[in-house]
Amino acid sequence: MFNSITGLITGKFPKQLFLSQNGIEWDFCVPDSNLELFPNVGAEAKVYTWLQHTDNLMTLYGFSSKDERAIFLDLLKVDGVGPKGAVKIMSSVSSSTLMQILESGDVASLEKIQGVGKKTAAKMMLALKGKLTLLEDSKIVRLENSNPFADVVSSLVSMGYEKKNVEQKVLELASKNQEFLKDKSQKEQEDFIFRKAIVEFA
Q1: C-alpha span between 90 and 34 (Å, rounded)
Q2: DSSP structure class, residue 131
Q3: Cβ-proximal residues to 25 (8 Å cutoff; 6+ apart), any chain
Q4: How many CB atoms lie within 10 A of CB 194?
Q5: Global pTM?
Q6: pLDDT at 135 (0 to 100)
Q7: Which has the closest alpha carbon to 16: 72, 75, 62?
Q8: pLDDT value of position 51
């Protein structure tokens, strides 16, 4: 029906975003992790959409990027996870962290996410491990051999921090600060992430 809607943000609330466009105020159901990625009220923003239309209801879901929406749609592939469940999961953990947990097969961490129990965790691993959808313009940072912050991870690990915790923290910081980092040099990005991580671990 439509891919995205651009307008002025008129309200931000838990799991809800209002957007005004040409005299129409749209009401989106948005994961809390995505709300942080949108600008403040009064600023212009593009919301990527997904419409749930049944006999009993019509709900418009909104996301900060195509990739965030792709993660949501991937979660819908899991047996027993509906749109509300997917929003609950995405509200409890950032997409980058969720991807890292799934790719590493960390079932224990997956079970701790709000909205995910043992049965759902097992289904998610079966359905999504190694199969998450990523688009060419992905802004979600993945921790792979080509990880741009591999040197930061190595430095922190050499200081005595546990590698698993370091990798997760670096992913979170890179995801939360992607707008700030995008115009920085590699060295500036690494220094920023390193300093932030040190502060949070302290």
Answers
A1: 8
A2: T
A3: 10, 18, 19
A4: 18
A5: 0.65
A6: 54
A7: 62
A8: 94
Cα–Cα dist 179/65, whole Å = 12
Residues 9, 41: Cα–Cα separation, whole Å: 5
In whole angstroms, what is the distance from residue 188 CA to residue 62 CA? 32
Residue from 93, 85, 121, 105 nearest 164 by CA: 105
Altogether, the residues listed in the chain come to a count of: 202
145, pLDDT greater than 50: no
Whether the per-residue pLDDT at 41 is higher than 90: the answer is yes
Residues 6+ apart with CB under 8 A from 66: 48, 135, 137
Residue 49 burial (10 A CB sphere; 0-12, 13-18, 19+): middle
Residues 61 and 25 sit within 8 Å (Cβ to Cβ): no
Question: What is the mean pLDDT of the segment spanning 159-170?
Answer: 83
Q: Is residue 49 within 8 Å of 58, Cβ to Cβ?
A: no
